[in-house]
Amino acid sequence: MAKHVLSVLVENKPGVLARIAGLFSRRGFNINSLAVGETERPEISRMTVLVDAEDAPIEQITKQLNKLVEVLKVVELDPDLAVERRIILVKVRTEPGTRSHVLETAHLFRARVVDVAPDSVTIEGTGRVDKLEALLANLEQYGVKELVQSGMVAIGRGPRSITDRASRH
Amino acid sequence: MTDKTEPRNKPAPAVPSPADLAERLAPAGRVEHGEHVEQVENVTGAQSLIRSLEEVGCEVIFGLPGGAILPAYDPLMDSTKIRHILVRHEQGAGHAAQGYATATGRVGTVMVTSGPGATNLVTLLADALMDSVPMVAITGQVPSGAIGSDAFQEADTRGVTMPITKHNYLVTDPLDIPRAIAEAYYIAASGRPGPVLVDVTKDALQAQTTFRWPPKVDLPGYRPVTKPHNKQIREAARLIKAARRPIFYIGGGVIKARASEVLRELVDVTQIPLVTTLMARGAVPDDHPLHLGMPGMHGSVAAVTGLQKSDLLITLGARFDDRVTGKLSTFAPLAKVIHADIDPAEIGKNRTADVPMVGDCREVITELLAAMKAEDAVGDYTAWRTEVAGWKTTYPVGYTEPDSGLVAPQYVIERISALTGPEAVYVAGVGQHQMWAAQFVNYQRPNSWLNSGGLGTMGYAVPAAMGAQVGEPDRVVWAIDGDGCFQMTNQELATCVINQIPIKVAVINNSSLGMVRQWQTLFYNERYSNTDLHTSYEQRRIPDFVKMADAYGCLGLRCERKEDVDETIKAALAENDVPVVIDFVVCRDAMVWPMVPAGVSNDEIMYARGMSPVWDRETGAS
Predict the structure, then answer these.
(1) Which value does ipTM take for this structure?
(2) 8 Å CB contact of B221 and A69
(3) pLDDT in tens, B589-620
């Protein structure tokens, strides 16, 4: 199934996140990841939703989202024309012989070390999904003790912003 | 012009009631509806709520008080503009608001308390959402500090009703009350109508606040489109001209848009045959020569076949519901589709539209009519009209007299319609009787037929009839109900008697859950699992509907023979002071025909048991 990136501008009010999550679940659309935060205008929040769907249902999802009163705008971002990022924090087991290899791997992926303990280090990686998957693949051999990932966020390339037209309808 | 309020260092006067405020503010004694009212101090949230409801034009509230909503009921008692009707169950209040809204086109209003009061609205909110009924439900809520603490009569009303309302609000600040009410009514009535719920905490109702009207309504994410694109209109006209077998597929949206008259004109100008769905009965009079009847699972052969063999579906205010389409992949296989609806999400949901049009049906039809005339876009459909007329003649909607000697339920409904006439309002429950009411009542005008189509809620009839009668006091209102449905909400007969709401209830009593029984007859080898209700057969009447009617103070009548049917109906029509309940004992083996079984193609429509029309193998082109 194809993955689609939807950027949804919503009014920053209590309950909006629940409303949108509820819509996805009751319409049977699968959410892969979801991230939400305020935009440059504090009364507007932006949700980035990564959806698993065929192309036809994506149109239906977009239309159903637009029906919600608190949704201002729904835009599907073309992966080729957008910058997408995700952050991971991974705690890797280290032994005296392997620690330098772990650090070198982190360095090669331009990831940072954010915590050090006698037998583990915690690495922070940012980037596209494929880069982070490669980082993890390389760290797995040492033993991953714990892993946490954020949702994906994305922004379109170029000078135009999607909030430009949010107030005009 | 308006009274200036006193400075705050004076002792606070007794809190004025809305009636007092009205007196005080207008020189002539009454504030005109909608006129700007100056800021008024020292009002409670409850008074602000009632004033807001008056200002939006609410005239009737169906409700039931309770602890959390109690503060609102005090100023409500003094309101001169709003009539409150006390029901016996919150579900009855909700269906009444639906009936009121569907019969009149206005927004229905419900007011109930927190917890169980609000959760009793769940069924009808889902119903109103499915059938696009404009209504506003105001529910009480525990004080905002107690939310989330499992307080007495607390429920997460907003969370529970989120998926089943068009929109909902939780109001904790009394200053927000006028805005929430104004927005709720606007959202309920505009675009695709639907139910809106406003949950108000008890402390918001009790706090002192300022009532300010009109409030600042700001809905940046809600911009319903009503005007269709010119380009789409012209494209539609072009398709209609090029078609050889076009058909109008008319849905409930046409009635909501009040578009019956322009639709009639469009039909007469184009001379294209039409079908009206269950929710659109009455949009065009039943006896119009081009009207093929109702399509769908229990539609007429002419209507169902008309859609199947058509080469162009002109869909207005309909949503390709599964009851109409049958097996979707085989529905109208030869047809291109023009789809006009006010809800863009419906277009392309079940069937791709060749010409999609987002807009209000009345505007769409008006523009389409103008375009058809301007471009002389009417084609020659004579051969098609002859063909469909042939189907109407060969396969009329009808029924056979039962062998058992009991009355045919279809006959009862036919006679009710014949003796009462099309100016009445007909309301039904859900089941066999609902299908017969859709088939055998003669509909001539819109807003004369009320039922629960999308959700199919049993128990809809009696309270909805009550609401319809309140909205249309000068019309006769018939609730054609089943014995199963009737037992679900008949407590509202008490409300009807006490408030002088003289509805007429015809219980089509076959002592069964009829529709389920029909399926068990056809598909489960006549194994009748749990469908026997013991309300008339073998003289077991549990309950005895006539005695029950009596107990409520209604006129109770019983009719068990065909010869008595007319007389009984006339007796009911002659009684206009109290509601009438008629126990029509009918044959339980009567079936609803035609039928397209679930999951099957519409081509396999059966007009009697084991009998389907045999079609000539014609090619698509003619």
Answers:
(1) 0.89
(2) yes
(3) 999 999 999 888 999 999 888 888 887 654 43
Alpha-carbon gap, residue B484 to B512, rounded angstroms: 7
Three-class secondary structure of residue A2 per DSSP: coil
Task: Kindly report the pTM of this predicted structure.
Answer: 0.91
Smallest CA–CA distance, residue B222 to chain A, in Å, is 5
Chain A residue with CA closest to B168: the answer is A69
Residue B342 in contact with residue B360, Cβ under 8 Å?
yes
Q: Report residue B605 CA to chain centroid gap.
A: 27
Active site residue B202: yes
Phi first, then psi, for residue A45 (nearest 5°) are -110, 160
Taking residue A147's Cβ as centre, other Cβ atoms within 10 Å add up to 12
CA dist B362 and B603 (Å) reads: 32
Given B59, B153, B575, B604, the catalytic residue: B153
- B464 CA to chain A: closest CA distance, Å? 28
Phi, psi (rounded to 5 degrees) for A42: -65, -20
Of A26, A59, A70, the CB nearest to B221: A70
Provide the 3-class DSSP secondary structure of residue B96: helix
Instruction: Output the 3-class SS for B336-371.
Output: EEEEEECCHHHCCCCCCCCEEEECCHHHHHHHHHHH
User: Min CA distance, A62 vs chain B (Å)?
Assistant: 9
| Cα–Cα separations (whole angstroms), residue A128 to A79, A104, A131, B176, B603 | 11, 20, 5, 44, 52
Q: Which residues pair with B477 in a beta bridge?
A: B425
Residues of B with CB under 8 A from a CB of A: 158-159, 162-163, 166-167, 170, 187, 219-223, 343-345, 348-349
Question: pLDDT by residue (tens digit) across B123-176?
Answer: 999 999 999 999 999 999 999 999 999 999 999 999 999 999 999 999 999 999
Residues of B in contact with A59 (CB under 8 A): 348
